[in-house]
């Protein structure tokens, strides 16, 4: 009876999976396209002293830009945590469903085995409860006795087989039920992590949007200029290091497909947790691009960095993924000529920018 209760409880838990629904994906730090011409020197400081309402004291636009950048970076880290928990939840949900199916099949098998055992018991009852050997001895027919001995032996073996299979099936059923309970506990823990990460993401994005909303129209335009200027400065420094001179490799066939997919998404809005087709976050774009190229890769930027083969920056080729920042919370796809295509952050669209416009952690190659 306890086995039945535990099995039923596991199946009930599986039914609750229907309420699981959550978006996925990694985040991005601000990086709109670098301007074709360098901004005029001194621009960063020119209007920087402009005060912004709602901030403590007077902050320059550069300070506001840095704060917004920091908020989006933190949201990016929280997004990767969310996405990782989401991936684990999906895996655990799938395992629970399989276990539930095994439990149902096990219960059906037990019912069938019990029916067979009952049929054997009823057959013996119809023979006045005498064991097969005694029945044959009383038959008085030697040939019938010899033939019956063989059938009786086969029947005994079949009965033992039914009972043995019944015991094994009951043991398997208990194991399935215990495993389902364990996986359900893990699933609940992942859901708690998802909820916490989602809360952090929303808080960071809301804080960044609030800062931007407190700026006047001219200041918001200037803020975008400052973002572009910061990117330009970083990209120029990267190019000045001679990095691009070492990069002269052509894309692989799969890499060309991935680049074609990613660049065809230019202009679509960033949305955290999105994997297309209407919007993307940074790792949503790269994972979908490589899936379209026939090479599925991990969903998050951190897992892409952890699991995919690393290559030196000097060996980079179009289609490779450039991972950014020490915590691997942003990713873009290299498309050649020192540029990447990426989904920057909320409020920005999928765009092209300099590969060196952000702090490069390293490069990975999905089809190595």
Shape annotation: elongated
The oligomeric state is: single chain
Low-confidence stretches: 1-57
Mean of pLDDT: 74
For the largest sheet, list the strands in their spatial order: 1-6-2-3-4-5
Order of helices and strands: HHHHHHHHHEEEEEE
Radius of gyration: 33 Å
Describe the structure.
The chain has 368 residues and is of the alpha+beta class. It starts with a helix and ends with a strand. 58% of the residues lie in helices and 7% in strands. The N terminus is likely disordered. Strands 1-6-2-3-4-5 form a six-stranded antiparallel beta sheet. The chain contains nine helices and six strands, in the order αααααααααββββββ. It is elongated.
Structure keywords:
7% strand; 6 strands; alpha+beta; disordered N terminus; 368 residues; 9 helices; 6-stranded antiparallel sheet; single chain
In short:
The chain has 9 helices and 6 strands; from the N terminus they run αααααααααββββββ.
Annotate the secondary structure layout.
Blueprint: H1 2-15, H2 43-46, H3 61-126, H4 132-137, H5 142-213, H6 217-240, H7 253-263, H8 282-292, H9 301-307, E1 310-311, E2 321-324, E3 330-336, E4 339-342, E5 351-354, E6 360-364
Antiparallel strand pairs: 1-6, 2-3, 2-6, 3-4, 4-5
Helix pairs in contact: 1-3, 1-5, 3-5, 3-6, 7-8
């Amino acid at each position: 009876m306890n086995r039945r209760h535990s099995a039923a409880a596991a199946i009930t838990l599986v039914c609750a999976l229907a309420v699981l629904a959550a978006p996925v994906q990694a985040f991005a730090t601000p990086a709109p396209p670098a301007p074709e011409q360098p901004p005029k020197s001194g621009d960063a400081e020119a209007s920087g002293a402009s005060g912004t309402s709602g901030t403590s004291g007077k902050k320059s636009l550069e300070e506001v830009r840095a704060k917004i950048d920091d908020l989006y970076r933190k949201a990016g880290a929280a997004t990767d945590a969310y996405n990782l928990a989401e991936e684990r939840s999906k895996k655990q949900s799938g395992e629970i469903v399989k276990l539930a199916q095994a439990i149902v099949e096990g219960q059906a098998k037990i019912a069938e085995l019990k029916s067979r055992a009952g049929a054997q018991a009823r057959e013996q009852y119809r023979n006045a409860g005498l064991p097969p050997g005694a029945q044959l001895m009383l038959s008085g027919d030697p040939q019938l006795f010899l033939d019956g001995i063989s059938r009786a032996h086969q029947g005994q073996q079949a009965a033992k087989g039914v009972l043995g299979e019944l015991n094994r099936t009951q043991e398997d059923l208990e194991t399935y039920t215990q495993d389902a309970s364990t996986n359900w506990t893990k699933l609940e823990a992942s859901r708690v992590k998802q909820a916490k990460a989602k809360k952090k993401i929303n808080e960071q994005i809301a804080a960044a949007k609030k800062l931007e909303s407190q700026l006047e129209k001219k200041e918001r335009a200037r803020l975008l200029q400052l973002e572009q200027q910061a990117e330009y400065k970083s990209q120029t420094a990267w190019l000045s290091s001679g990095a691009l001179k070492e990069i002269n490799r052509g894309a692989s066939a799969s890499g060309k497909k991935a680049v074609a997919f990613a660049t065809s998404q230019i202009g679509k809005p960033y949305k955290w947790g999105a994997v297309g087709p209407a919007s993307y976050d940074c790792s949503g774009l790269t994972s979908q691009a490589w899936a379209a190229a026939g090479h599925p890769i991990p969903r998050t930027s951190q897992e892409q960095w952890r699991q995919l083969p690393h290559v030196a920056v000097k060996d980079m080729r179009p289609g490779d993924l450039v991972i950014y920042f020490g915590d691997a919370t942003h990713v873009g796809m290299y498309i050649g000529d020192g540029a990447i295509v990426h989904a920057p952050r909320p409020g920005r669209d999928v765009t092209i920018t300099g590969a060196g416009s952000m702090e490069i952690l390293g490069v990975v190659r999905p089809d190595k």
